[in-house]
Write a structure and sequence with these properties.
alpha+beta; nine-stranded mixed sheet; 12 helices; 52% helix; globular
């Protein structure tokens, strides 16, 4: 017998299966993306943020007036509408009168500093601002049977462009988010521009009284280039998914998780796209509309339903595309609320509508691509469903249920 010791392989209990060495690492990678979105959803507002909308009238003498309808509580709290939480806004609204008055005065001062009208001759001056007051809030409370968020009120201002200015770009405070700006000028059709958060509008030509000294621009704002219009609404549709549409992101992730194989996923996405495009168009033409107090809880419930089904069934069932189609009809009504607040150009209505829908689809495809890059590599592994699909779907389902209850409660207040 030799003096060396033989190595013996330890005996494993055959009843306890071994896990891959890097299972926990992959598990964490699998649910960390949904977890981030779910955490954002739990901290977000139950109400759906509304886009600010401005009506601008520019006279031939360079004087302008601007009426801006915006979500007042988030601006007073100095946060974007999508970042404002219901408890914070309700706490502010229910505060004492002197506290409301002081915060409104501070908000007016901040708006006056951050709003600018930049021209080719310098910055236009603001002569007068009528900011919402405590009395406006009281009148708002008396005008609605139930006070719900958002609280959309109007501020008005008057200003004067520098002498000889031939164009102007309006810059709004960044915390207002996206602002839809409808421009009215003498002798021309209204035109709608989009000012993205922290950015100014495109230059707006000014029709001056002295055309001999300052000839009007050759191109009318009411007749923008077709590609510029397409780009504007593509960007707007994409932004409604990424980064603003947390609920739509979670729904698309729910579709992806059940089966990330191309063909089944394509069936689901196609059904969802056809449905929401259909109701988006019908809503924009005024054929069908539902109040947000109905639509938004249904959207949240659809998120929970899809995620729960992911947990209950391991494969795509024949009814899944039809169910997704039905939920897509509801989501389309949610998308329409953005365009209703924005407004669409009358001459290129169809182009703007299709471009917005295209932007939404690009956003959804980006979400799906991110899902593939995060966990798609392991979709054929045995541990993929118990380690990734089920825990991620459970997080999404919990968020959807939480949001459903929260939105119903907000609508009933």
């Amino acid at each position: 017998m030799t003096g060396h010791l033989a190595y013996q392989q330890p005996v494993r209990d055959s009843a306890v299966p071994s896990l891959p060495a890097d299972f926990l690492r992959r598990f964490r990678l699998g649910w960390i993306v949904p977890a981030i979105f779910c955490a954002a959803a739990f901290s977000a507002s139950a109400h759906v943020p509304s886009m600010a909308a401005a009506q601008v009238v520019i006279g031939s003498d360079g004087k302008f007036t601007l009426d801006l309808t915006f979500d007042l509580p988030p601006f007073v709290l100095n946060v974007t509408p999508s970042a404002a939480t219901d408890p914070d806004m309700n706490a502010w609204l229910s505060g004492p009168t002197n506290s409301l008055a002081a915060s409104l005065a501070a908000a007016q001062s901040r708006f006056a500093k951050e709003f600018t009208g930049v021209t080719d001759k310098g910055t236009g001056g603001v002569d007068k601002i009528a900011f919402p007051t405590v009395a406006d809030l009281e009148r708002y409370r008396e005008s609605v049977p139930i006070v719900q968020l958002p609280v959309m009120l109007m501020l008005s201002l008057e200003g004067q462009l520098p002498a000889g200015a031939r164009s102007v770009s309006f810059h709004f405070p960044a915390v207002m988010g996206i602002v839809a700006v409808t421009v009215n000028r003498p002798g021309q059709d209204p035109a709608t521009l989009v000012a993205h958060s922290g950015e100014a509008t495109a230059p707006i030509p000014v029709q001056l009284e002295s055309a001999a000294v300052n000839p009007p621009p050759a191109k009318s704002l009411a007749e923008p280039g077709r590609w510029a219009l397409v780009r504007q609404y593509l960007v707007l549709g994409f932004a409604h998914i990424l980064p603003e549409g947390t609920d739509h992101i979670l729904f698309v992730l729910g579709l992806f998780l059940l089966s990330c194989r191309i063909k089944p996923l394509l069936w689901q996405v196609t059904a969802f796209t056809m449905a929401h495009s259909m109701t988006l168009g019908l809503a924009m033409y005024g054929i069908i509309r539902l109040p947000s107090s109905v639509v938004e809880p249904l959207i949240a419930a659809s998120i929970a339903f899809v995620a729960v089904e992911n947990i209950c069934t391991p494969e795509l069932k024949p009814w899944r595309p039809f169910m997704v189609f039905g939920f897509g009809l509801i989501h389309g009504l949610g998308f329409s609320s953005v365009l209703l607040s924005l407004g669409l150009p009358s001459e290129d209505f169809a182009t703007a509508l299709v471009s917005f829908s295209g932007g939404v689809e690009l956003g959804q495809l980006t979400v799906i691509t991110a899902g593939f890059l995060a966990v798609g590599w392991w979709r054929n592994r045995k541990w993929y469903r118990p380690g990734i699909v089920i825990p991620a779907s459970a997080l999404i389902a919990a968020t959807g249920l939480f949001w459903t209850v929260q939105r119903i409660h907000s609508a009933m207040r």
